[in-house]
Each structure stands twice: as C-alpha cells, then as structure tokens.
Amino acid sequence: MNILVLNCGSSSLKFQIIETDLDLIEQNADKRLASGLLERVVGNALITLQVEGQPKVRETAPLRDHRSAIDFVLRWIISPNSKINNIKSLGDIHAVGHRVVHGGEKFTKSVLIDDQVIEQIEDNIELAPLHNPANLKGIYGARELLGTGVPQVAVFDTAFHSTMPETSYLYAIPYQMYRRHRVRRYGFHGTSHRYVAYRYRQLANIEREQVNIITIHLGNGCSACAIKNGESLDTSMGLTPMEGLVMGTRSGDVDPSILEFIHHKEGIGMRDIDTILNKQSGLLGISGLTNDMRELLAEEQEKNDRRARLAIDIFCNRVKKYIGAYLAEMGGADSIVFTGGIGENSAAVRERICNGLEWMGLSLDKERNGEKVNGREGEISVDNSRLKAFVIPTNEELLIARDTVRTIKNVPRRW
Ligand code: AMP
C-alpha cells in the first residue's frame, strides 16, 4: 500500500509517501518513495520536494492554508514530472497517516479516523492549542481532497506514554486539578521513543518485555523516556512539551514561582511569559545567539564564546540528571539510546553527556562514538560496558505509515 504520511505544524507541512504492508513490515523492506517540506504555509511558501534517489527540488508558491498545501502536494505527487514509482493518480494513494500531537487520556493507540475521533481530537485542543488545530487542518484537508473512501489514521505523540503509572504522571498538586481538568503529565515524542525502542529490540535480538533502556531524543524539542519491560515508565515532557530537558528555545524544568516573579519584575502577563519560556529560552535564551546546536558548537570552538559553552553545558547537564534519575527509578537499565538531530549527529554532545558516567558502568568508546556513527545505527560504548550506549536514528514517519496499515487491517500492533 502507498501511504501518505502528513505532519502538519502551525505554519508548516511535512509529508512522505511510504510503500508498506504487513509482509514488508515483517521483512523490514518498506520503502520511502518521496518526501517534502512546505514552510510558511500561509503566504509565499518555501517548498522542498524530493523523489527518493533524486536531487531535492526547491520552489516557492503562494498558499492560502493547509488545505491548499495538501492540494499542492497531491498535484505534485501525481504529476508526470515527479515520476514517483507506481503512483500515477490519486487512486494510487491508499491511505493517509496523520501525526497528531495530543491524544489526551482517550487515545492509547493509533485509530482509524471517523467523525467521533475528530470530535475527540477537537476536545483535546485545550491541552495542545498550538498543535492539535494544525493536525486537524491536515485531517479536514485530506478528507476533502481525497474523499472519505480513503482511510485515514491518527497516530498520537502521547499514546506510547499511556502506560505510565500514576506515580509518574500525577503532579503533586491538589488531586482535584487532575479530576476536574485532567492536569497531569502526558509526555510527547512517543512515536520516536517507540520506534527507537523497537529498533533496539531488533538490534539486540530480544523480546519486547526485555527492553530496559533510556531513550534520549535530542532535536529542536528534547525528551527522555524510561522504558521498562518494553513500556514507557516515565518521560520528561509533561502536560505540554515544555517540561524536562533544555531544548532549542524551551526552558524545560523551571521553578514554577519564576512565572509570578517575572510577572512582577517585568510587568508582563502570562501570555508573554509563556512566549519567553517557549520561544526565547533554552539554548537560544542562554547563549543569546541561536537555538541551533550545530551553530553553538561552532561558536564555542571557533570563537571560544562563553555563553555558547554555557548553553551546551547546561543542556548536557540536564540530560545527565535525567539519566541518573531514570536509572534510579527503573532499578537500572541495559542501555541508553541517543536519537533526534543532535543525538544522532553530534559525537561531541554525546561525549559531554556520557562523560563522568563511568561510575555507573557506562564507558564510551571514543572511536565508535566518532563521526562514522553519525546518522547511522550503532553501539558507541566499549564491549564490556555494563551500561551500554547506542545511536539509533529515529523514523517517526515510517512508524506512522506502519501503524496506518496495521490499523486499517485491524492487526494489533506488537509495539
Ligand atoms: P531535529 O529537530 O531532530 O531536526 O534536530 C535539530 C537540531 O539538531 C538542531 O539543533 C541542529 O543544530 C542539530 N543538529 C543537526 N545536525 C547536527 C550536527 N552535525 N551536530 C550538532 N547538531 C546537529
């Protein structure tokens, strides 16, 4: 089956077409046929398109909204110029898989989208006011353009963490806040943590229940997940994707009293404070330079910039703290696994995080951790390391495509 995977952000649209099916999943032989990114979706959009194995094509086009962005993508997919294997008309797109950020407590696995599911995703808008409306626009747009005959599946960022026990997901605030408003920790990046755990299981050749690892997703957004007996036991993001690790522009953990303090000192309201913590903090806020780790590493190395170094050090220190906390919470783990743009590509950051963890049994192999592993799967600890370390590139789109097929065919997912 050819699955269109859509990931709609507030002003962007990412897509892939993936050929997959139950037998292809079994053989790990599913294939990406094409992919693309549309930025500045409302306005003169910047568009990058790529048919697998061919160079990227860049262009601009005026787009009104997400619907016109999807329309643009569909036209490109079937146009004779793109020449995507086996796709000649819209009828060759067999289903659509959507990334949906917040599934609340309702969705613990991927589901076939119908009117009731749409209503329930709408109900979760208050929990993810930036993300769920954009995801819904993708669902409405694809339905309208492809028709209701093409099945659509929602894959939730929160679903993998639905196994967290109350001891992980409840905040120590009055219990009524949970009962009345569902204020609790949900966790995000679940599709990424789940994919990485699944690949780890394959590499280690073990059963799901034997997977005891800490997965560390370090990209623009960052989160860690304690996976015990194959299930999410705890994760660093909370009610929203703000909690936990230091991120590109998000603060991660702060003392909640900071909000009141800044309100008085700066004379600004909650909305502006939220913008500061979400968009002007993290690596950007500390360095005053950029949210981009690659640029910060270059600033540090080439100009010896003090605040670039400080930002990277605080970033790495926070990850280290979570590793320690999760090892204690899990009663030990077999491996830590790095993923995400930074986790997959920066040997320097991985080394700074693992540095000093020898006492807990983690010995990094400098050569294995070198540039060769960047962007690839591989072990980066020494052979006899008691706690092992791996790099495993994430592939959320592939998991969304696979879940789409399994959900349509009513095959319970094994992970
Ligand atoms: P993502 O959100 O997963 O695409 O990750 C984006 C982050 O990965 C940005 O901070 C990038 O600077 C960072 N990144 C990508 N490649 C590298 C690299 N080679 N070294 C350091 N950071 C990188």
Q: What do you see in this structure?
A:
This protein has 415 residues and is α/β, with parallel strands linked by helices. It folds into 2 domains: 2-156, 2-Layer Sandwich (Nucleotidyltransferase, domain 5), CATH 3.30.420.40; 206-391, Nucleotidyltransferase, domain 5, CATH 3.30.420.40. The protein is built from 15 helices and 14 strands. It has an 8-stranded mixed sheet, sandwiched between helices. Strands 11-10-9-12-14-13 form a 6-stranded mixed sheet, with helices on both faces. β9 (213-218) and β10 form a beta hairpin. It binds adenosine monophosphate. Adenosine monophosphate binds at residues 219-220, 248, 292-294, 297, 340-342, 345-346.
